[in-house]
Design brief:
Blueprint (H helix, E strand, L loop, with lengths): L2 H13 L1 H39 L8 E7 L8 H19 L3 E9 L3 E5 L11 E8 L2 H4 E6 L6 E2 L2 E7 H6 L7 E6 L5 E13 L17 E3 L2 H11 L6 E8 L9 H18 L3 E5 L2 H53 L4 H35 L1 E3 L2 E2 L11 H26 L3 H9 L6 H4 L2 H26 L15 H28 L5 H12 L1 H40 L3 E5 L2 E7 L1 H10 L18 E8 L4 H5 L3 E16 L2 E11 L1 H7 L11 H10 L4 E5 H7 L6 E6 L2 E11 L12 E5 H7 L6 E6 L6 H9 L4 E6 H9 L2 H35 L1 H9 L4 H34 L22 H27 L3 H4 L7
Parallel strand pairs: 4-10, 7-9, 19-23, 20-22
Antiparallel strand pairs: 1-11, 1-12, 2-4, 2-11, 3-4, 3-8, 5-9, 6-7, 8-9, 13-14, 15-24, 15-25, 16-17, 18-19, 18-21, 18-24, 20-23, 21-22
Length: 957
């Protein structure tokens, strides 16, 4: 392609610069949204690795690698092969793994043998000592020399200097300066003289350098590595028993693209070691850790891609729609080029080059926006809620570049394929196409909308069956074989329903026009005529608006539903912000009644009791515990505490009509304080929960609230009397209310009975209760615990629901879900706004001649404006309403299936679908901006319209 063609390309792009710019924006959005997923999952992987390293702080690091050579019985080690495998491990292995080394240590040792003192007068010779002569690389940097001095290389006067652990020296009853004889059995039996010159202690006991454990060093003597290799192995020919190489690699900067190569390297490592020196094996590696990381990374990427796929597909559709608009505007130019001798291949090459140029720009700019989006996803604390916390370490990875290239290729295919079709058209084909402009689109002719609706219906059926199976079998959704396409069912249902509505759209318009007839005002009649005859040209905009707004509503509802139900489950589980259990002092009551009875029986005429069994000297029988209640008022005075209440929980045997119905959980409360502290969800109760708390303290002191399932099973009603055995004491209650749920209690696990705490303590001796606390907003718990300790109140357990919720919010999966749904919502809003404005801009530009003719025929400017506004109302307005309705309908139909993802147990509190008014308001604001901007654009266009310029020879462009 020569320079003239390039100049033509740039001139064409400049003449259609707004279309070119909008296509570029779509490509950038597609690339940035796509690359943000691997960027985020890569950063989340690093966070998981860091967390794993912290959790494994008490054991070996996650990046541990241990290679060991064990000599065969009686065989001599090939020292050249040993040097080669040592070089390979020190140089090649670290290069192939490619991560920084935190710790490296090479341990070598001879066979353990019994040592004897050179001078029995200085060392107890009667004690048997079995010692191992070893060497450790890097020992000087890891220890503090406690006694004596550090060891030196070489052999002086036939004596080797050795050091040992200080504790080991004491255990073996040895001293600095003692000399020992160490027997070595090789080809020639020889005795080594060892002199203890110093002892050491580890600088850091938790360092991975001591991976073998200090206990295993209690019978070891250490020479320098040079002495061990050059003197013992080479000069004296001592047989090597063991050599181990240990690495601790820092995996905190690991990337998802490195997981598979690392696994292959570790799998191959054992083979390479054995090939270089027989008997060398890979004993411990971090392949299992890598596999866990890879599994988590793949699951996270697949989940995020699944969530993002409908939004990405929507962006691709926007790009295709934009390309189609550009090609329709340029189709006469293409036909002229064909008539002037340009081949189909040249025209296709022209549009392909344009796509490649735009794709290259998008690949250069998109990852920068993708990085920002990944950071935003990492800071998501909820739907459209981004917090300023420590963000995940996001960086550019190979996977991100690959995802970006794939996005560009798909987007180019969506824009180039229509160009190929247009490039094959001549002027004759163009005229034929214009003459057949009323032909229905392919998806209507082949009933693809009906087929997609059927597929969506099948998906709904499968999701319903999966949920039923989950509830019946107790299997969670990740254990079931779920077809992947079911994740796309809601988006597919919205898209299919939108297409089906577009099939009915012209029929509805014709019906309205037929009913109104000639009575309709001129603008409305012209609008209905225009839309019914050219409905096909409005389909791209309408389906884009339906899809974007429908997905926006669905994503917003899905995110709010997941967040709300997850939070409410945690709040219900605990019942209050903070639950504290204090230490209660107790003394044991002595039961002397049995002793007194025995005394009476044995003292038959006033005689003295006998000394034997049954006499007065029998030990008193232990009685019940008498508890000392810690003061309660200090709990209310603690800093950050809004209010507090006492809550008694105790198991008791419930009795109805003289027969036991089993055990249940009895909760004693102070109803006034409890109403201020406990978490309630009002829709869980037939009336406001305060009414039941009021009834508990108003009608009967012995009032009790019982669960609905117990009342139905035993036909109980308000006013009935039931009894409970509490700590071997019978207590009567009168039923004042029947409720399905109560905070922190699960009726399906054990029935609950809510009563007045003071009434229970009047019937039963006092015993420990919990303290439920409502904290002020963002108030820390530590000052409360510290303050209570200063008041002399000891605490043995506490639960902070806010801390648990904060931990949940920081989980990479949760953050990824809310981040992707938030980004998808914002992208859908932006795409719908841009698509709407561009469509109407080019639609108005294309119909200048038509407007001029209508004005020349006598249509006033006001009537023309009314006609176009009605067009917007019938197309964009109906699409917006339908998109919002379909989004809410899809939420009602499909979001209940999220319950199966939480396991087979029925959720408490019951699952509910959430539509946040704030999200709907944001959509309405965007829709309002769209309508107002579109109307403004329309008015400006009509004001600039000149009849004498519009009505002219030629064609519409």
């Amino acid at each position: 392609m020569g320079m003239p063609m390039m100049r033509f390309l740039f001139r064409k792009m400049w003449n259609t610069r707004w279309l070119t710019l909008s296509t570029l924006v779509g490509l950038i959005v597609a690339v940035s949204f796509t690359v943000s997923i691997p960027m985020y999952s890569d950063g989340a992987l690093k966070r998981v690795v860091t967390k794993t390293l912290q959790e494994n702080g008490g054991g070996l690091p996650a990046g541990s690698l241990l290679m060991r050579y064990q000599a065969s019985g009686g065989g001599k080690t090939d020292l050249n092969a040993l040097k080669e495998v040592d070089r390979y491990i020190r140089d090649d292995v670290t290069a192939e793994i490619g991560f920084p080394t935190e710790v490296f240590v090479n341990t070598r040792s001879l066979k353990a043998t019994e040592v004897s003192p050179v001078d029995p007068t200085k060392v107890d010779a009667s004690r048997v000592r079995t010692m191992t002569l070893s060497s450790l690389t890097g020992l000087d940097e890891q220890v503090e020399w406690s006694l004596g001095k550090p060891y030196e290389d070489g052999e002086a006067n036939g004596v080797l200097q050795v050091v040992m652990l200080e504790e080991a020296m004491y255990r073996n009853d040895l001293h600095i300066g003692d000399e020992l004889e160490y027997s070595v059995r090789g080809e020639v039996r020889q005795t080594l003289t060892l002199k203890i010159v110093g002892t050491f202690q580890p600088k850091e006991l938790t360092s991975a350098y001591w991976h073998q454990g200090l206990e295993g060093m209690m019978n070891s003597l250490y020479v320098t590595p040079n002495t061990f290799n050059q003197v013992l192995l080479e000069q004296k020919g001592a047989p090597l028993q063991l050599s181990s190489w240990y690495y601790a690699f820092d995996l905190r900067q690991i990337q998802t693209s490195q997981l598979n190569p690392l696994e292959r390297t570790l799998d191959r490592l054992g083979i390479e070691l054995y090939q270089k020196l027989k008997g060398t094996q890979l004993e411990l590696s971090f392949a299992k850790v890598l596999n866990e990381f890879r599994s988590q990374s793949i699951q996270l990427q697949m989940m995020l891609l699944t969530l993002a796929a409908p939004m990405i597909a929507m962006v691709f559709y926007y790009i295709a729609m934009n390309a189609s608009q550009a090609l329709e505007k340029q189709q006469s130019d293409i036909a002229v080029l064909r008539s002037r001798g340009a081949s189909t291949r040249q025209i296709i090459r022209l549009y392909l080059l344009e796509g490649l140029l735009l794709g290259a720009v998008a690949l250069a700019i998109g990852p920068l926006f993708g990085w920002f989006m990944a950071k935003s996803i990492g800071s998501a604390n909820g739907f459209l809620e981004f917090v300023n916390r420590k963000s995940i370490p996001v960086g550019f990875t190979t996977d991100a570049v690959l995802f970006g290239v794939v996005a560009v290729v798909i987007a180019l295919m969506a824009s180039i394929i229509p160009a190929i079709i247009f490039a094959r058209s001549s002027i004759v084909n163009l005229k034929q196409k214009m003459a057949r402009s009323d032909r229905r689109p392919v998806w209507q002719r082949w009933f693809l909308d009906v087929l997609l609706l059927a597929i969506a219906g099948y998906g709904y059926y499968m999701l319903n069956q999966q949920q039923l199976l989950s509830f019946k079998t107790g299997m969670s959704s990740d254990q079931l074989q779920v077809q992947p396409f079911l994740f796309f069912v809601p988006a597919l249902a919205i898209f299919a329903a939108g297409l089906f509505f577009l099939r009915l759209f012209p029929l509805i318009l014709r019906l309205v026009q037929w009913i109104g007839g000639k009575l309709l005002p001129v603008p409305l009649y012209l609008t209905l005529t225009q839309l019914s005859r050219s409905a096909k040209s409005y389909y791209p905009l309408m389906i884009l608006l339906i899809l974007t707004l429908g997905l926006g509503v669905y994503n917003a509802s899905a995110a709010r539903t997941i967040d709300t139900n997850s939070t409410e489950r945690t709040l219900y589980k605990h019942g209050a912000d903070v639950i504290i259990k204090a230490v209660w002092g107790s003394t044991q009551e002595v039961d002397r009644s049995a002793n007194n009875n025995n005394n009476n029986n044995n003292n038959g005429g006033g005689g003295k009791p006998g000394p034997g069994p049954g006499g007065g000297n029998q030990r008193p029988k232990p009685g019940r515990d008498i508890y000392n209640e810690p003061p309660f008022e200090p709990f209310k005075r603690m800093p950050g505490v809004e209010t507090a209440t006492r809550v008694l929980k105790e198991k008791g045997n419930m009795i109805v009509s003289g027969r036991s119905i089993g055990s249940g959980t009895i909760m004693g409360i102070d109803n006034v304080d409890f109403s201020k502290v406990a978490w309630f969800r009002n829709d869980l109760f037939p009336a406001h929960p305060y009414r039941y708390l009021d009834a508990l303290g108003k009608y009967y002191e012995s009032g009790v609230i019982i669960p609905t399932n117990v009342a139905k099973k035993y036909q109980l009603k308000q006013g009935d009397v039931i009894s409970a055995s509490i700590r071997e004491q019978m207590v009567e209650f009168v039923i004042v209310a029947i409720l399905p749920y109560w905070p922190s209690l699960y009726p399906d696990e054990a029935p609950f009975f809510i009563a007045n705490m003071d009434y229970i303590y009047d019937q039963v001796p006092i015993f420990p209760y919990e303290v439920w606390i409502k904290m002020q907003d963002k108030a820390p718990l530590t000052p409360v615990v510290t303050g209570l300790q200063k008041e002399g109140i000891e605490i043995y357990d506490y639960q902070d629901v806010r801390s648990e919720l904060a931990t949940q919010s920081k989980h990479p999966t949760r953050g990824g879900v809310f981040g992707i749904l938030s980004m998808g919502f914002l992208v859908s809003v932006a795409i719908s706004l841009i698509g709407y404005l561009l469509y109407w801009f080019f639609n108005l530009s294309r119909r200048v001649v038509q407007f001029g003719i209508l004005r020349a025929m006598g249509l006033s400017r006001k009537q023309l404006t009314g006609m176009l506004l009605l067009e917007q109302l019938f197309t964009a307005g109906l699409s917006i309403v339908l998109g919002i309705v379909l989004g809410k309908l899809a939420s009602r139909l499909f979001l209940p299936f999220l319950q199966s993802a939480e396991g087979a147990k029925k959720q408490v509190p019951p699952f509910r679908i959430v539509f946040e008014a704030k999200d709907t308001l944001q959509l309405y604001i965007v829709v309002g901006v769209m309508i107002v901007t579109g109307a403004t654009l329309l008015l400006m266009h009509i004001r600039r319209l000149r009849v004498h310029q519009a009505v002219k020879m030629g064609e519409e462009r």
